Amino acid sequence: MSSVPGIPSPRPAGAAAPAPAMRASLVELQDQLRGTDAALTRLLSQWQSGAGESGGDFVRVWESREEQARRIYELEYSARTSLCGFQSGANTIAPVPTTLPDGPEEHQSDDTGPPMRKDGNPDASYRIVVDRDFLSEPAALRALDLRVERGHEVRVVDQPLIKLLIVDGGTAMVQLEPGRSLELRPPLVLLAMELFESVWRRSRPYLREDGDLSPTDRRILQLMLSGLTDAATAHQLGTSPRTVQRRVRALMDLAAVTSRVQLGWYAMRNNWV
Q1: CATH for 209-269?
Q2: Rounded CA gap, 86 and 78, in Å?
Q3: Residues 235-266 as b or e (16 or more Cβ within 10 Å = b)
Q4: What was the pLDDT predicted at 31?
Q5: Can you say whether the dihedral through the CA atoms of 73, 75, 80, 82 is positive or negative?
Q6: What is the pLDDT of residue 113?
Q7: Are 173 and 75 in contact (CB under 8 A)?
Q8: Where are the alpha helices (DSSP H) in the chain?
Q9: CB 14 within 8 A of CB 258
Q10: What is the CA radius of gyration of the chain?
Q11: First to last CA, the chain
Q12: Contact 156, 204 (CB under 8 A)
């Protein structure tokens, strides 16, 4: 296994080896994500084939982009207690810019009724996990910052995620492929909850409020640990690659390390991210 995605894996002379417990934890997370994701996808595929028959009480299939977007919206704003979800990259159902208050309106097939809300559901607590691909999407950081301002809990993992939304622990929407999502009812929704909780426990906070780092430095570290290049990080932050490189160098000096590998491990061990 490589060290931290996007950071060169060889350690320079004198670099401290990662703590064995941390390395074991990362390996376990990778294996668990791959295994649980694959098992859930296989099971959902089996239920999908019978969704119109005996499985109809437990599974509903949503296929068109408009149907999926509308159902996700209905589920979010019908929640009364909690919303748990995975957000991944290349989101064609609800592109990130359309979720921003001043972003473009999402297309509605019937063009009737009021525009879709973008202010979040005030009745529900949010727990959201995003992956590296999501962090590369246009306006991703701005969308996550907005979530944090609203009091949502946001965490990050480096492994790819399936798209998932769980409402009040009783209904789940899982996207198997861009053109097909499944809505799960009990008892199948328990599988989605188990997957979410497993990933949540092993994820890291998007931004921490404690410590002396500036929000910009925390974002740079977050994107670096997620594997984005300096150029991609600069694009997300609206700055130049040279500025990113200067800030990384300053963080290395602050941590008293000599490589980005060491900086990554230092940041995780000391709760910088």
Answers
A1: 1.10.10.10
A2: 18
A3: bbbeeeeebbeebbeebbeebebebbbbbbbb
A4: 65
A5: negative
A6: 57
A7: yes
A8: 20-49, 65-78, 132-135, 140-149, 189-202, 215-225, 230-237, 241-255, 260-269
A9: yes
A10: 20
A11: 21
A12: yes
- Contact yes or no for 135/222 (Cβ under 8 A): yes
How many whole angstroms separate alpha carbon 156 and alpha carbon 140? 12
Helix, strand, or coil (residue 39): helix
In the chain, what are the domain boundaries?
A: 29-104+118-205, 209-269
In the 8-state DSSP scheme, what is residue 9? -
**Whether the model pTM is above 0.85:** no
Q: Amino acid identity, residue 226?
A: S
By CB neighbour count within 10 A (0-12 exposed, 13-18 middle, 19+ buried), where does 65 fall? middle
pLDDT digits (tens, 9 = 90+) for 119-128: 999 999 999 9
- Rounded CA-CA distance 28/33 in Å is 9
Please give the CATH number for the structural domain made up of 29-104+118-205.
3.30.870.10
257 or 114, which is more confident: 257
Report residue 273 as tokens: 């991210």
Q: How far is CA 245 from the centre of its chain?
A: 25
Q: Is 72 helix (H, G, I), strand (E, B) or coil?
A: helix
Residue in this structure with the two tokens 């209905």, named with its chain if needed:
74
3-state secondary structure 188-252: CHHHHHHHHHHHHHHCEECCCCCCCCCHHHHHHHHHHHCCCCHHHHHHHHCCCHHHHHHHHHHHH
Across the range 155-180, mean pLDDT stands at 91
Query: Range with the lowest mean pLDDT among 4-8, 179-183, 225-229?
Result: 4-8
